[in-house]
């Protein structure tokens, strides 16, 4: 059998951070080929290279036996490569037909609409999707939107279909149906790449699996002949040697999360009955595959999301889950959210204002009647120097002008400008270079040593393993297993991916 | 992948400006204002008022009598402008300024009718009552928003009509002037009216200036003003960093309603001297206009309020002497708003011809 798409020695780095380090991959027509790996292993980056979204720094792309240089996604589409992204690229107020027309231009609007409508009907019928071409996209469920994405790509006439984490947003039943459809599609000769981190999907549906770790492809195997344990081991890598450190005595409970339930804005319950506690003097790590409720847990804890029920008890502030204003919570809890610009910074305000906002309530910047802006600027200047925040010409400049890493440093400088009893950090080192990352980790350890309770939510297992004193594994909005230090990497990996 | 910073429109290229010096910004603003005024002059010329007469009329505004009229007119305009700008600052679209004026005016009139408090203190009590009246009427809309998620634009706007018909109910009923049988309240007694403070300045204007001072302090100097900036810059972040969002929002919305209530008092106890059917007419539009032109800055509200008062008074003169309709005055206001609004586009973007 020939090879539909082959990638050889692909390298790609972003601002010096290496995302792909000589990755290789090949998929045959008629196959479902899974690409397995942890978050940040480089799966999506590699597929974005194949879809023409990223230009590789080095390496060869071979389509149907011919080496090509892709000039962009449109070029890739012309050559028969279509990708369905994890975050759908649809125009919400438009109808299904209009969205698909947008991606598959026709010279005349009116006749184009007719053509596209017919093509959608045909394609949807073949796949067994029940799509009404006249519905608006915003009125569709996530599963239906995904069907639209798939039809959109297929209407363009692709021979290589890349699906990036297609089941991340689906329920079990929806996932099953989708994957069965995908298998059927492969039988008709399409080459399908299934990017995933779910072992079970690989075992059940894939004809071949390539495993990625740290930007490299480590192995390509037949999933039917390899065991789950083998796959897990290849995915998470060998157990890293944990750095030794002195024992600290644990203090009293600082943060107690009891039977917490939360729903997303679309009404789906994403945290159900979640319970754990964090004691003073420990770092409690929450490990898990992303999309299992980590974001909602972090939001609930830092006050950005109202829980449906349950308790968030903070030592000294009581149950803060129901409090309307977060003043009390903020005084005791340092929040380092994953999405800085959404939850931690106001891009339109100055660096100094962003820095001072958490301490203004305490009266550090003057009485309620008169804000001491000079003191604000002075403190902000000191923090900029102490935390090595780059790109600040003046503390009066807007925070939106800071790069991701420096914005994070500003958030951390602010949150540690007081003595929090509880620290909630969600992927705190995302987007930071090695030095800044080490500095963040030092801050978390220092907070723990001072007696604070630190909650570290991260999709990076190495980060969790290096820092945590105890580890809870989150799956579908619950803590399904807890491990004490030193934790076994393999067992954590299994708890993360075994959804049963 | 980054979005391209410009979009091509044929040979016209649109760039997004990162920054523009404040005084170039004011240059654009002044230019747009000039264009707006030029169009207005053109419109008036078509309506039969030669630009020459217009200049004479405008110059005429600066005689003592007209100046006095302008200053009297400026007070309620500044107050509604403040009411609008305070609420807009935290993203609460208070379009119920007229309803709040009505309740302010009615509360003040009620104090007079039921003779509450000693005579020397009467006007002060009327002031407090007016503020409370406006405040409670806007808090009704705020409560609807918070409790039932009713859009405040709709709630405040429609509550204007409720307030208006309640006013009519009183003026055609219990509060009707028994002597004249006109739908007006009996005239206020002399100690119930806003006195002149000399130099032809009415205490209504002094009140407005005091409120400007208060709002300026609140917005620019106080901690609450800082929180207001954070709330409007990023609401989600405000929740996370512990901004007392509810307290600030309710407080600022209440202040907005109180300012509009005081505008009601100024018109009832100043200009009109009694509760009438029309003392509130057109003030929603003017309030929003002033807030918009001043970019919600209380100090600039005072200046813009004064300019709009000149426009009003000139408009009234034109109405009386040249028989142009009141709609024409509103049309000119609208032209100026559109002109200033388009300057915003030029401040944010640069237009270039490219080959």
How many domain modules of chain A? 2
Radius of gyration of chain B: 22 Å
- The gross shape of chain B turns out to be globular
Contiguous runs where pLDDT drops below 50 for at least 5 residues of chain B: 1-9
Binned, the helix content of chain B reads: 55-70%
Protein described:
Chain A contains 17 helices and 20 strands. Chain A has 500 residues and is α/β, with parallel strands linked by helices. Chain A has two domains: 5-236, P-loop containing nucleotide triphosphate hydrolases (Rossmann fold, 3-Layer(aba) Sandwich); 253-497, P-loop containing nucleotide triphosphate hydrolases (Rossmann fold, 3-Layer(aba) Sandwich). Chain A has a six-stranded mixed β-sheet with strand order 6-7-8-3-9-10, with helices on both faces. In chain A, strands 16-17-18-13-19-20 form a six-stranded mixed β-sheet, sandwiched between helices. Chain A has a four-stranded antiparallel β-sheet with strand order 2-1-4-5, covered by helices on one side. In chain A, strand 4 (58-63) and strand 5 (66-68) form a beta hairpin. In chain A, helix 4 (109-127) packs across helix 5. The longest helix of chain A is centred in the first third of the chain and has 19 residues, at 109-127. The two termini of chain A are 36 Å apart. In chain B, a hairpin with a 2-residue loop joins strand 1 and strand 2. Chain B starts with 5 loop residues before the first strand and ends with a strand. The chains are: A alpha/beta (500), B mainly alpha (355). The A-B interface holds A 53-54, 302-304, 324-331, 335, 337, 342-349, 353, 357-358, 360-361, 365-371 and B 1, 217, 221-227, 229-230, 233-234, 236-237, 239-247.
């Amino acid at each position: 059998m020939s090879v539909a798409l082959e990638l050889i020695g692909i390298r790609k780095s972003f601002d010096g951070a290496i995302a792909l380090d000589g990755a290789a991959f090949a998929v045959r027509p008629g196959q479902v080929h899974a690409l397995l790996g942890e978050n940040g292993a480089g799966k999506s980056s590699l597929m974005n290279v194949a879809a023409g979204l990223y230009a590789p720094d080095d390496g060869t792309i071979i389509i149907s036996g011919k080496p090509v240089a892709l000039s962009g996604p449109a070029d890739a589409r012309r050559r028969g490569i279509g990708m369905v992204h994890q975050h759908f690229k649809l125009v919400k107020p438009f109808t299904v037909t209009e969205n698909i027309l947008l991606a598959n231009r026709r010279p005349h609007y009116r006749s184009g609409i007719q053509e596209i409508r017919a093509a959608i009907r045909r394609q949807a019928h073949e796949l067994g999707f029940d799509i009404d071409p006249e519905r608006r996209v915003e009125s569709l469920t996530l599963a239906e939107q995904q069907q639209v994405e798939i039809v959109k790509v297929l209407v363009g006439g692709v021979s290589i279909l890349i699906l990036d984490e297609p089941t991340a947003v689906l329920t079990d039943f929806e996932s099953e149906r989708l994957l069965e459809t995908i298998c059927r599609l492969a039988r008709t000769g399409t080459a399908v790449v299934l990017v995933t981190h779910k072992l079970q999907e690989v075992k059940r549906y894939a004809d071949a699996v390539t495993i990625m770790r740290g930007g490299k492809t480590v192995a390509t195997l037949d999933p039917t002949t390899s065991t789950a344990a083998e796959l897990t081991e290849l995915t998470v890598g060998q157990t890293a040697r944990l750095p030794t450190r002195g024992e600290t005595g644990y203090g009293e409970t600082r943060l107690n999360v009891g039977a917490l339930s939360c729903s997303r804005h679309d009404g789906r319950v994403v945290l159900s009955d979640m319970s754990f506690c964090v004691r003073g003097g420990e770092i409690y790590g929450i490990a898990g595959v992303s999309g299992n409720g980590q974001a909602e847990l972090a939001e609930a804890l830092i006050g950005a999301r109202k829980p449906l029920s349950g308790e968030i008890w903070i030592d000294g502030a009581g149950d803060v889950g129901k409090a309307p204003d977060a003043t009390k919570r903020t005084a005791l809890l340092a929040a380092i959210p994953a999405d800085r610009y959404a939850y931690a910074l106001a891009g339109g305000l100055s660096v100094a204002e962003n820095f001072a906002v958490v301490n203004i309530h305490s009266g550090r910047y003057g009485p309620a009647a008169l804000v001491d802006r000079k003191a604000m600027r002075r403190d902000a200047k000191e923090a900029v120097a102490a935390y090595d925040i780059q790109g600040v010409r003046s503390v009066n400049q807007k925070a939106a002008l800071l790069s991701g890493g420096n914005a994070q440093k500003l958030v951390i400088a602010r949150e540690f400008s007081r003595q929090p009893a509880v620290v909630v950090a969600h992927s705190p080192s995302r987007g930071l270079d090695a030095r800044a990352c080490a500095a963040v980790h030092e801050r978390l350890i220092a907070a723990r040593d001072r007696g604070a309770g630190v909650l570290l939510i991260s999709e990076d297992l190495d980060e969790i393993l290096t820092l945590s004193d105890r580890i809870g594994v989150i799956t579908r909005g619950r803590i399904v297993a807890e491990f004490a230090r030193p934790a076994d990497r393999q067992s954590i990996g299994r708890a993360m991916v075994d959804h049963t | 992948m980054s979005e391209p910073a410009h979009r091509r429109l044929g040979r016209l290229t649109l760039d997004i400006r990162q920054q523009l010096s404040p005084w170039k910004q004011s240059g654009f603003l002044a230019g747009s204002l000039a264009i707006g005024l030029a169009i207005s002059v053109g419109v008036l010329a078509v309506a039969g008022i030669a630009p020459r007469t217009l200049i004479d009329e405008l110059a005429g505004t600066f005689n003592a009598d007209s100046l006095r009229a302008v200053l009297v007119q400026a007070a309620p305009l500044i107050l509604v402008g403040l009411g609008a700008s305070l609420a807009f600052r935290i993203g609460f679209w208070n379009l119920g300024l007229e309803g709040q004026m009505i309740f302010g005016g009615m509360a003040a009139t009620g104090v007079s009718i039921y003779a509450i408090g000693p005579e020397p203190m009467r006007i002060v009590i009327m002031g407090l009552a007016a503020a409370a009246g406006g405040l409670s009427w806007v808090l009704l809309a705020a409560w609807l928003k918070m409790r039932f998620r009713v859009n405040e634009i709709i709630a405040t706007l429609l509550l204007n009509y409720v307030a208006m018909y309640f006013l009519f109910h009183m003026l055609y009923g219990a509060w009707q002037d028994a002597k004249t049988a006109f739908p007006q309240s009996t005239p206020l007694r002399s100690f119930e009216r806003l006195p002149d403070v000399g130099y032809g300045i009415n205490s209504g204007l002094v009140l407005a200036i005091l409120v400007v001072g208060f709002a300026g302090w609140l917005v620019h100097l106080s901690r609450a003003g800082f929180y207001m900036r954070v709330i409007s810059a990023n609401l989600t972040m405000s929740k996370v960093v512990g901004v007392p969002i509810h307290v600030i929002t309710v407080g600022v919305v209440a202040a907005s309603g109180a300012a509009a209530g005081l505008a009601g008092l100024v018109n009832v106890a100043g200009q009109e001297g009694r509760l009438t059917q029309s003392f509130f007419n057109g003030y929603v539009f003017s309030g929003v206009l002033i807030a918009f032109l001043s970019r919600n800055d209380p100090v600039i509200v005072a200046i813009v309020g004064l300019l709009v008062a000149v426009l009003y008074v000139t408009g009234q003169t034109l109405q009386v002497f040249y028989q142009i309709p009141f709609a024409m005055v509103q049309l000119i206001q609208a032209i100026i708003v559109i002109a200033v609004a388009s300057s915003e586009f030029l401040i944010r973007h640069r237009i270039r011809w490219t080959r």
